[in-house]
Amino acid sequence: MATNNTVFLLFCWISFAVAWSPRLLSPRRDNTNTSLPNEYSYETFYLDQQVDHFGFNNGDTFKQRYLIASQFWNHHGGPIFFYTGNEGDITWFCNNTGFMWDIAPEFRALLVFAEHRYYGSSIPYGSQAFKDPSKLNYLTSEQALADFAVLIRYLKSSIPGTSDSPVVAFGGSYGGMLSAWMRMKYPSAVIGALAASAPIWDFTGLTKCTALMDTITKSFMKASPPCVDNIRQSWTTIDKIAATAEGRNFIYNTFHLCSPLKTADDVGNFKAWLANAWFDLAMVNYPYPANFLEPLPAWPVKAVCAPLGSPLQDKLLMQGLYEAVNIYFNYTGQAKCLNTSQDATASLGDAGWGYQACTEMVMPSCADSSSMFEPTTWNFTSFSNSCFSSYKIRPRQDWVSTQYGGKDIEAPTNIIFSNGLLDPWSAGGVLNSLSDTLIAIQIPDGAHHLDLRAANKDDTAYVKAARTQEKNIIRLWLSSQ
What we know:
- The protein has helices at 5-17, 90-96, 98-107, 133-136, 141-158, 174-185, 211-223, 225-241, 245-254, 264-283, 300-305, 314-329, 352-357, 380-391, 399-404, 461-479; strands at residues 43-50, 61-69, 80-84, 110-114, 167-172, 192-196, 415-420, 438-443.
- The chain is of the alpha/beta class and 481 residues long.
- It has a domain at 22-205 and 400-479: Alpha/Beta hydrolase fold, catalytic domain (Rossmann fold).
């Protein structure tokens, strides 16, 4: 059992929180983005939104940011492609959801990217938002969906030519969950939704808590079985070496760490840091060089497994682990040391997901001995106590299933659930079609929402086929209007 169980239990939802980290693109506050090619240019707008859509006592408002690209649009009723923003700065999603930009000219669509409340610059109560639990009380998926519905109504009433425009929702990761839930909750607002890498079933009682770690293990196993064996063995090896001050110093020097390992907690944090790296690598295992979380080579899991491709023991295993993790954290060779207190995907001040994970977004995670991770258990009581310590609130582990139907979602229509099977979050996704209009698309060699990324010359046949299928389905939705 892990010596620092709480740290390890938390790393899973931390990874999800930062899967869409805005760290790699500085927020743009100007009215027009001019630094990108013309086809990616957009205008920035703000709409006054109710802080509380579901009560009438609080009349406070905030300014929700949204981005519009109209250069491809048929001004006489062309469709609106609406991105349901997730946990980060909306400009980052806008510039990293190339599929929408790629297909907009073909559909002559108006592109809208809506920012999620409490992220980016759409912060109710401003600097006080994260200091007062009563101010954070309105950070929920339900309120965010209501924001999107109000924004769509506003756009169709204020932009000439949009009153009869059909709206299709798009989203990836948590944004994909929101796009699916948008179609379920507001079917009059959107005619359909593409929910990419949306783990809508990664909640209590819906998916085994081992599922994410098992999926990562399979992804690494596909690249190199010896690599999996070495990582599985590494946890006990680290404990053995770190049992002495001399051993901890060896790890510090071998990994070129920024800070020495002095205590058991330091060692636990070091192991959680490694585990997070393996998790993130499975998410971004793209077939071409990318800069999604960190600058990485094509098929990065295969690259990091190369130094771990043969059986290793003790200090040689530590050296192999360093060479592997250094590819992730220091592929450019510019880092002078590796900082275990800072994940590669750490966001810049977007603390909202920690609160969301401690309220309704409770995603249980654990690992058993069959995975490559250190065995851990899921302890909801410990998780709840940690949340109370941080936010003075306690999570409701069954609320999402109650609110959005859990696995009983056959009634809605027109939702595409796409999942790359290399992606950890596919474990909580809809992998098989539920009806003729609730369609699942599997991408066997796909990582996290690969299909939402821009077309690339090194795309695999599977993702190309998935995008073609998605376009055909969207075209069918639009033709039926």
